[in-house]
Amino acid sequence: MNATPRHHELRALWKLLAFAGFLIGGVFLVFLALGVVILLVPGYKPETGPTIVMAGLLIALAAVAGSASWACLLLLDRKPLGAIGLGFDRPWWQHFCGGTVLGVLMVTVVCVVMWAGSWATSEINPDLGEHWGALASSALLFLGVGFWEELVSRGYAFQVLARWNPLVAIVALGALFVGLHLPNAGGLDPVVIINLWLAHLLFVACYWRTRSLWLPIGLHVGWNFALGNLFGMTVSGEAVEACILTTTSQQNIFTGGAFGPE
Asked: How far apart (Å, rounded) are the C-alpha atoms in residues 31 and 14?
């Protein structure tokens, strides 16, 4: 007897609830562990190393999202992690590296437009040699951000919903993706919200084109790394150590205000 549409709805709902439960539980444990570390490590002060702490936090959150996805696939779908596009079949590294290069190129175009419009000026960071540790930490941070946000916004939950109703998946997980950025500086700007929706659609298109999360993850990581670590601009309202220092000389729709030019 074939399953009814109602049956598919209920199965999708249970899968989403299971994923949310695993994810929320894992996130709680990560923040609990962070709190314990802050309380118990002698002499620890958050301001002494915020980038490495945030990098560790985001990598841990990415691991939680990956584990929640793997648990749901194994227990509910009887499938490997590669079923959501995180397998290590032959093209995975091509998708990841290609996406990273594409992200860097896109940001380079943004910078060229800003320079051509005299909206920003740039110079090599004269103190770069003294801050390689911070640069490496923020690069790890962006790696964690790319995996965390893609697994949560375009991973298991998105794909379960998309099999039931693609439009609902795009809208619901797009709202989640936007919501993750609203607390950031400038995150409530209407132009920023529109931009985040467009970015969500781009990442969705990358996944659907390849059926692999490696391409949107690579694009996400390359974009953030180039914007922050390479060209020294604000990334979703946050500033990090950079190879090139870019100063915005004019605030407009292209330079992005507090949120940044992305």
From this structure: 26
